[in-house]
Design a protein that fits this description.
504 residues; mainly alpha; 19 helices
């Protein structure tokens, strides 16, 4: 059999699937083996890397420890050598700096003995104190170094008193040289910051000989304000002399005191306005706490001072209506309202459904008597109340107009009540005619009807008008009306009055 014959042989899908199943199983086993080998190789690599990292870290740690120990040992050796050198060192008595410091100390002592204790004038003493005070400099001015800044605590304890004095003299000399450095000149900076108008104003003041500082907010106040009130001095300012106000310092101090008093007054005014406004807002509230015993509401002062008890009764203030007191009642009312609203909505939906349903109209033969009875009853009620309406109108309207002949001819046809009565009468007569005609036709079609039946059908309880009148009488008896229906008059004046009353 050749390859072409093998290829031409038809193979089913079942045979192909059976041939592929063993090859698929072999592939799965090979893939699982490869994956397990890769996992084992990755674990071996990770373990090798971790071991190398730990070994390197230990070597670095040992090297850092040895380096730190060597540095500490070197520092200890240097400190010991410095301390030994300091202990073996001696001060040279012939040093130029020490000789200069000793001469300065001796010179200061001689000057103090020569000057003595002489009493000075108060103004002279104040001037000397002012000259001795250091000028105001920048905050960056360096301070002279003290003895503790230069020496350690051990060195300070080992020095004798003479050595300490000489060392302090050296520090004073160095401080003088350091203090000669340039400092910020605030006076020059302020002069440079002034504009042209300020310089001209100062020049004019110098020419006039009035070097007054700006003490007021307006030029008018500065020109006319001359009153200087006596200000009570505090304890710290009692030692100052009374003529300090003539100096620039006293004038500046007075300006500062005035500004301070004005600021205090303004603060008091603003605080009073704020308190008044807050008290008004608090008084307008309706949820203020009150005393349950006497009903006294909590004031604004008590609220700000956190006083929670009534001064009269000693009982703690409470809210007028607490939620815990009205919660149950309020929730019950809300539940009842929701229940009633739900019921009302259901009834409204049912009413809409009933109205949507179309009812069959009743025939005229069934509603005719009822309708005509209502109309006749309304007519009789109009006649009963007609006289009362006319009397009320005549009492209010005293004017009686004259009616023309044309209006009288038109009024002969009658008013609305007359026309309604005639219409009802015609309808009643027509109904009776139709009834007689129907009976005649029925008697002609059924001759076998007995005479007794005809007699019962002919019996009439009364006319429609009689039955209606009896109903009206019964209605009047129920309503407490004792008047009988009066005869209607159809004069033109009454017709016009009736129309007016109906329109009214």
């Amino acid at each position: 059999m050749s390859l072409l014959d093998v290829a031409r042989q038809p193979k089913t899908l079942l045979e192909v699937a059976r041939n592929e199943q063993p090859s698929r199983a072999r592939l799965l086993t090979i893939a699982a083996d490869l994956q397990s080998e890769e996992t084992a190789a990755a674990e071996r690599r990770a373990s090798v890397i971790q071991a190398a990292i730990s070994a390197t870290g230990q070597e670095v740690k040992r090297e850092m420890q040895t380096r730190r120990q060597s540095q500490v040992s070197e520092l200890v050796r240097e400190a010991v050598a410095e301390e030994l050198a300091y202990q073996e060192d001696e001060f040279e008595k012939e040093d130029a700096v020490i000789q200069q410091a000793a001469s300065r100390l001796a010179q200061s002592v001689q000057q103090a003995e020569a000057n003595g204790h002489s009493s000075l004038d108060r103004h002279t003493l104040k001037k000397q104190q002012r000259d001795r005070l250091p000028q105001r400099a920048c905050r960056s001015t360096p301070k002279p170094m003290t003895l503790k800044d230069r020496l350690s605590s051990f060195q300070c304890e080992q020095l004798t008193t003479t050595q300490k004095r000489l060392f302090l003299a050296m520090l004073v000399n160095e401080g003088d040289t350091v203090g000669q450095r340039k400092r910020c000149n605030r006076h020059v900076i302020e002069e440079l910051a002034k504009d042209k108008a300020t310089r001209q104003l100062e020049q004019r003041r110098m020419l006039r000989g009035q070097s007054r500082a700006a003490r007021y907010a307006k030029l008018d106040d500065e020109r006319h304000c001359r009153f200087r009130p006596k200000v009570k001095r505090v304890d710290g300012a009692r030692s100052r002399s009374a003529d300090d106000d003539d100096d620039d310092d006293g004038r500046e101090q007075g300006t500062q005191d005035f500004v301070r008093r004005m600021e205090a007054t303004e603060r008091v005014r603003v605080e009073q306005l704020r308190r008044t406004r807050a008290e008004r807002e608090y008084n307008a509230r309706v949820d203020k706490k009150e005393c349950p015993a006497c009903g006294n509401p909590q004031s604004y002062a008590e609220l700000t001072q956190k006083r929670k008890k009534c001064p009269n009764c000693g009982v703690s203030y409470r809210s007028r209506l607490a939620w815990s007191e009205i919660a149950d009642e309020f929730l019950d009312r809300m539940e009842q309202h929701l229940r009633a609203r739900r019921q009302w909505q259901q009834e409204k939906a049912l009413a809409r459904e009933r109205a949507a349903e179309q009812r069959e109209p009743k025939p005229w033969s069934l509603v005719r008597d009822e309708f005509l009875g209502r109309v006749q009853l309304d007519l009789l009620q109009r006649e009963l109340t007609k006289e009362l309406i006319l009397k009320e109108l005549e009492s209010e309207c005293s004017f009686r107009p004259s009616i023309s002949a044309k209006a009288q001819r038109l009024a002969l046809s009658g008013d609305f009540d007359e026309r309604l009565r005639r219409d009802l009468e015609r309808r009643r007569q027509r109904a009776e005619q139709y009834e007689l005609l129907r009976r005649a036709i029925a008697s002609a079609e059924s001759p076998a009807v007995s005479g007794a039946a005809r007699q019962r059908q002919a019996q009439v309880k009364g006319s429609f008008e009689e039955r209606l009148r009896r109903d009206l009488e019964r209605h009047q008896e129920r309503g407490g009306l004792n008047k009988k229906p009066a005869a209607s008059t159809t004069t033109p004046s009454m017709i016009i009055a009736t129309r007016r009353g109906r329109s009214y």
